[in-house]
Amino acid sequence: MLHASQQEDILTAAQILKKGGLVGIPTETVYGLAANALDGNACAKIFAAKGRPADNPLIVHICDIKQLYTLVRTVPEEAEKLASLYWPGPLTMIFPKADCIPDEVSAGLDTVAIRFPSHPAAQAVIRESGLPLAAPSANLSGRPSPTTAQHVLHDLGGKIDAVLDGGACSVGLESTVITLACTPPRLLRPGGVTLEQLRSALGNVILDPAVLNPLEAGEKAASPGMKYKHYAPKANVILLDGPREKYISYVNEHPVNAAALCYTEDQEFLSVPTVCYGNEQDPSEQARELFDALRRLDDLGVKTVFARQPKLDGVGLAVYNRLIRAAGFEVLKL
Ligand code: TXA
Ligand code: MG
Known about the structure:
Blueprint: E1 2-3, H1 7-18, E2 23-25, E3 32-36, H2 40-50, E4 59-61, H3 65-71, H4 77-86, E5 91-96, H5 103-106, E6 111-115, H6 120-129, E7 133-134, H7 149-156, E8 162-165, E9 176-179, E10 186-189, H8 195-202, E11 206-207, E12 236-241, H9 244-253, E13 258-262, E14 274-276, H10 283-300, E15 304-308, H11 316-326, E16 331-333
Parallel strand pairs: 1-8, 2-8, 4-6, 5-9, 10-11, 12-15, 12-16, 13-14, 13-15
Antiparallel strand pairs: 2-3, 3-7, 4-7, 5-6, 9-10
Bound molecules: threonylcarbamoyladenylate and magnesium ion.
């Protein structure tokens, strides 16, 4: 375990990466499992450590806008606009890839995903290594993304070279992913930069259907990560869509082997074990707490989890997108 507050630990992390190793690094969204993005062998180790399907491409992290132009073939005007507004920050953009991007990173696609994170420790490691860093979320595939260094160790301890502890992540959900390779641009994964913000910058932005709905059998995902079951706790999660009173009475009438994943305000009225994921009126708090809450649900050892469905606007759309996947798209309208 390395510590982001220690300059020598930042240098150690950078050294490991330069030698082709793997380091868990903090970002403002979630912890990433980083490797040299220009080294296909180093990136292959990421897939092995996570148990990640080989057809799911990686995001490349940069610490300077100038790096972007060395990694992609073209930068559309809309991308420059979004970069000026939201980089550094929780936004990933998809570009036509340059030849230096190994196939392991792009998973056979002719595009590459790029992000400029705002977390000072992430920037410091990229700068000190002198490398663009490929980094998916630093969880075992299928588990909730890690929002603390302890989550990373829990999932990947013994399989990676180091974790750089930079405290809890401030956004708590993975970055917004948008592709500008089509017209109008298309939101592939909602995150801390909201659909409303993207539309106010670019005008029309399409919400990819896979954000809210399961893929039809045989349908191709615009973003390969969307097709896998994600964030799944051991219990069967059911999203309950309705107002507080109905949620509380439904849960209290079905208490056998059950727990509630609820808002903080719901807790005192429930007669089953509860895990809270923030206040009803504060989607940013819900985003910050959701993944830790999903991990804590596993400790309760129950069979069924009744989750309170979040509102879909602003950052709430990202919270909903993760929860509906944790629930395997099982929703009960109250
Ligand atoms: O916030 C984040 O984005 C974190 C931190 C570490 O930066 N990273 C992250 O990576 O969430 P990962 O691998 O867990 O999710 C990346 C998503 C996947 O759904 C993947 O399929 C999609 O981005 N993606 C990556 N490259 C792509 C590409 N060229 N075209 C379409 N989707 C792509
Ligand atoms: Mg992930």
